[in-house]
Design brief:
- The complex is a heterodimer of chains A (619) and B (452).
- Chain A is mainly α and 619 residues long.
- Chain A has a domain of 252 residues: Cytochrome c oxidase-like, subunit I domain (Cytochrome C Oxidase, Chain A, Up-down Bundle), CATH 1.20.210.
- Chain A has 17 helices and 4 strands.
- In chain A, helix 2 runs antiparallel to helix 15, helix 7 runs antiparallel to helix 8 and helix 11 packs parallel to helix 14.
- The two termini of chain A are 14 Å apart.
- Chain B is of the alpha+beta class and 452 residues long.
- Chain B has 3 domains: 146 residues, no CATH class; 90 residues, Helix Hairpins; 179 residues, Immunoglobulin-like, CATH 2.60.40.
- The chains are: A mainly alpha (619), B alpha+beta (452).
- Chains A and B meet through helix 4, strand 3, helix 8, helix 9 and helix 10 of A and helix 1, helix 6, helix 7, helix 8 and helix 9 of B.
- The structure holds protoporphyrin IX containing FE and copper (II) ion (CU) (2 copies).
- The site of one copper (II) ion has 5 residues of chain A, from helix 8.
Chain lengths: 619, 452
Amino acid sequence: MAHEHHESFISKYIFSQDHKMIARQYLITGIFMGFVGGFLSIFFRLQLGWDGIDFTWLNGLFGNYLSSNFNEATGDVSYVLAPDKYLALVTMHGTILVFFVLTAGLSGTFSNLLIPLQIGARDMASPFLNMLSYWFFFLSTVIMLVSLFIETGPASAGWTIYPPLSALPKAIPGSGLGMTLWLASMAIFIASSLMGALNYISTVLNMRTKGLSMKKLPLTIWAFFLTAILGTLSFPVLFSAALLLIFDRSFGTSFYLDGIYLADGGVLDKTGGSPILFQHLFWFLGHPEVYIILMPALGITSEVISTNARKPIFGYKAMVISLLGISVLSFIVWGHHMFVTGMNPFLGSIFMIVTLIIAVPSAIKTFNYLATLWKGNIHFTNGMMFAIGLVSLFISGGLTGIWLGNAAIDIPLHNTYFVVAHFHIVMGASAIFGMFSGVYHWFPKMFGRMMDKKLGYIHFWLTFISVYLVFFPMHFIGLAGVPRRYYAFTNFDFADDFLDLNKFITYAAILGFAAQFVFLYNFIKSAISGEKAVKNPWRANTLEWSTEVNPGHGNWVGAIPSVYRGPHEYSKPGVDRDFLPQWISEEDLNQAVDYDSEDHDPIKRDVPSTTQNEESVTE
Amino acid sequence: MKQHFIHNNQNGIDLHCFLGGMHKHASKNHFMKKSILLRIFSLFLTVFLLSNLALASTEHAVKEENSDQQSEQIQSENWAKAPNPQNLEEKKISRYAINKQLEQGQANSSQSLTGYIVIIAILVLLIFGGIGAVMKDVQKMTGQKDTTNYNKINGGLMLGFLVLMLVGVFYEIVIHGKYVRLDSSSEHGQAIDNMLIVTLLITGFVFLITQIVLFIFAYKYQYNEKRKALYYPENDKLEILWTVVPAIVLTALVLFGFRTWNNTMIYHENRGKDYTAEAYPYQVELFAYQFGWNFRYPGPDGILGKYDYRLIDPATNPMGIDFSDPASKDDIVTRDLKMPKMELSRFVMRSRDVLHAAHFPDFNAQIYCIPNTQTEFHIKPLYTTTEKRAMENNADYNFELACNQICGASHFNMRQTVEVLDVDEFNKWASSQKAAFNGTEEVDDTQLSMTE
Ligand code: HEM
Ligand SMILES: [Cu+2]
Ligand SMILES: [Cu+2]
């Protein structure tokens, strides 16, 4: 594949089948959706901070979310957020962040970028399917975004879309056209995700380069691989659940509906269904889904930490086994989201045991991270900072999982702000940090340039601090019993203690959101005019750093390198460099090939302008 | 491939040359580096002191007020003990003392907000100021080249973050810890509280240890050119240790959890059996709808009669009671929720339309309300509303019932107060209620509007 082939603009940048271009497409779409989802959260946080705050300034674009208030005294009209549209915002925020940013944006970007590059393949097993996967994703994104602007508002039943609420437009306006679009979008999304996942699985299984046994796979690849398996096994179940819901909504069936009387419309002519059935189906995907989100982030940080601590990841085997354990267990713990649905307490006990068992592999991973840092020689690259941040957040959020996994404690805490704190820290923030870590670390591979590290540090510290400021206090709100998804805290004595805290959290959230613009600026500026990258800027061991700075379609100019060792041979005694790439043969070593010649300490590096001529090879 | 590898050597610059270049500035850098560190350190010190100051200012008043109640405060440490009736009196007192603080805290809430804003402002200053100042120094000493030691700066910041985090956690516990409900007003609720405290202590301990270790490692093992990292890929013993220890701790938690969970949900064993008035003298049916609650008491016969959602009529029969069932004829439909103290009330939950959840934060009780399906929960309240008001030192205190499953626009507004009465009073109230059945198989709706 070393030959040059001419590609038109469309086949290179739009309907590209090159996994690296598809990765960038996923990333940019993901970042865009991240800002949309983030904006929605600021929108509803403003309402929480200042109940009934005037949103007139948003009336142009988001008029469908506002209801007007006429002030008789002054004759002024003000616009406030309508209570049902608060739920619409929460729903779309959750959906966008969970599926579009942290599932597609994260897996889509890094599985696509790294699987072929790190296993030594020219491309995915099926580049065409891969391209389709992105464009299905794109289509579902467009539909979801369109639903934000329809008159009755987007889906409003929570990202978990529990029926009957999600099935009955008369119960909430968002369950009309908004919900239809949500379901359509998600169905397409699931198709996209399956195409991607099947591709990742077959690529990892079949296309590894010579010498790269499964035991030598970088942990990123292990994580992406297992994530893809989780996705293929669980997303179809959500698809079925959604399909049955579509039937209930549009074709007169009643899988989820029974015994309903509506204030507006009287007795509903549907019997025999069960809304709880939907929850079982939903969480059969839903729980694996949280690991679909988290595991790629863990994989990324494993590699980033090992590289930048200049140490082998501690307990490679245990890391893989924990990932395997988490994957298997995550299919049998879904009931912990349903402890208080009135399930048989014996069943609850079973779900409680398996849920707490899943904390063990999580603990192993944490301790192994700590052991990896121990006596390391840590380079605080931007990627490394976010990786360390992830470990901190993973600890904080994982520990509250132990509270919630205990069915007895879940009785008072279910659906309170404690749960909100738990999953935002352990999943939301952790996975976002994993994603940032990956972006900073592999930016040179994606764009051939370096990101500005100073801006990166500012971005990291502001984000890290604001994440804790936003979510840590929420534990206390939850422990006082305050339910999530409340438009205002003003109607309950036990909730209105937190009005001040809510303002504070909103301030912190705005700070955190503002910090993301530092990233955005850095990202765009660096992609266009950042300093040129060298081939192996972090002096890492994995195969992607053996390609040209800007690898062309086909990845390696010459033959595909073979692999001679595991991915984490950092600071190995007897080797005079503190890294030993996978692609350096013993023979090379004996001949003292200087694989470290073009580059110095990544942080202090004063980039020479001599590496440019490489680009001419590919472009 | 190899060829291509070697080829690249030409592009690199000589490592020795680079290091040599560094060497020239070494003596000058040495002094500057120290000043940078000093700056960072003093910044952190300031943050630490200021945040403590903010803390102190909010706490000041509380301390003054309560200096004479020290002894009672000590009793609050007894919370973790298993509940038993003799303990109750003590508990009340300690709860009372804490509530004094609570009140005080509320008065200070605006102050606590100021404290927060101060901290945030400092953080922002710290980040921009710290990094900015250092960068200025650096530019001064190097001309344009940025040879800042970012490893040192960020290592220091990691340590600083740890300090801030610990201060923050402490601050939170002081300011918002008081809202945490660790003295539930129901019997099973206290067992759950104990479970929660044990979990809090264990996870809190692990939290502190692991976060401290993480950030200290980050600080301590920051990059140093003279050092090489330790090649340490595995250690089976260590790994077994940190597999087995968490497993044991979790097993203990699971066992403890089983007991609490089963004791709370034990009534399920009676599921499907007839609920006789003898077995459950106090029963109440809770009926959730968009957006409110109705309740049904069984009346003198002690039995809740049949229902059918097709009979629902908001005006005449809001709960869809089937009055052809003799047991229904004396049932009471009301908007008041009352419970007898120290007696087990059996709650049967239903929903009229979408899912709701009956959430009683005071009693650590929660269960979904599902259309055409019954769920249930049993609550034994420990205090009457009047007693609770005295304990909280708040004449307006009410037990509350909230909806905790997203159910539509007014989900946030499904408030219901719950009144706990002494048994005698409760019985008196119950027997004074008129049956809903008015002979025409329709509810008397005047009663509904009266009691609202
Ligand atoms: C230590 C392991 C963990 C345990 C024992 C645990 C346990 C739980 C439990 C019991 C709940 C249900 C709480 C409730 O709704 O009442 C829950 C909620 C949740 N957890 Fe975890 N969790 C763990 C780790 C994680 C991880 C690693 C993630 C994500 C990567 C995660 C994501 C979530 C999410 C998203 C929810 C809330 C879903 C919703 O209701 O909207 N958890 N967790
Ligand atoms: Cu789960
Ligand atoms: Cu409700």
